[in-house]
Amino acid sequence: MRPQARNLILSNLLTLVLALILHWEPAWLVWPYWIQSVVIGWYARKRMLALDRFSTEGFTSNDRPVPEDERGKRSTATFFSLHYGLFHLAYLVFLCIQHPVAAPRDLTLLALCGLSFVLAQRQTYQVQHAADLRGRPNLGSLMFLPYIRILPMHLIILAGGAISGGTFTLVAFTVLKTLADLGLDAADRRIAENAARRAAPAPRTEG
Question: Is the pTM of this model over 0.85?
């Protein structure tokens, strides 16, 4: 098992254990998932800014092709940060109203969940960045991938008000989310590795 997959499983397992011990409602799981989503966005921006070579084929802004230079890279990262940040700010307001957290114990445990997600995502980022340096990834694809990663969280938000609590529900949600995390993480890694292979020079043949 790859280290990044193992870390994803462990971070989600930690969240499940805490939820079972503290008898969290399924909708309350959105808090650690929101933290994970913010962590994913942070590393996505870091990944874009760390690119040396990249493509913007098919990627436009205001109906104009995004330039394949430092200005294009930074403007894309800035747009992503603003859009992704406002998106999560709206959900933070929702969470504070619907599922407020005030107890020091709960805040400490959420911080622990957040740290586990940081460690898991950092491992993923290191693998992605190494592949990016070998290849020429598409900047537009890198910008949109985080939105796909966070879909499970939003499905839980939509379903949270219509489901009842219980051990089975907590386990089912966590298992489905972990499977989604692993699948999308693997797909993201394959995209980076395929881009690296396409950019690799063809082997030289001696005449």
Answer: no
Q: CA–CA distance from 4 to each of 8, 44, 125, 171, 191 (Å)?
A: 6, 16, 9, 21, 16
* Cβ atoms of 61 and 75 closer than 8 Å: yes
Do 151 and 72 form a contact (C-beta atoms < 8 A)? no
Q: Which tokens belong to 59?
A: 């990627």
The structural domains of the chain, with segments of one domain joined by +, span 3-198
Count the neighbouring beta carbons within 10 Å of the beta carbon of residue 166: 12
pLDDT digits 0-9 by tens, 154-190 = 665 566 555 556 677 778 778 877 887 787 777 777 7
Whole-number pLDDT of residue 6: 83
Give buried/exposed letters for 27-41 (b at 16+ CB in 10 A, else e): bbbbbbbbbbbbbbb
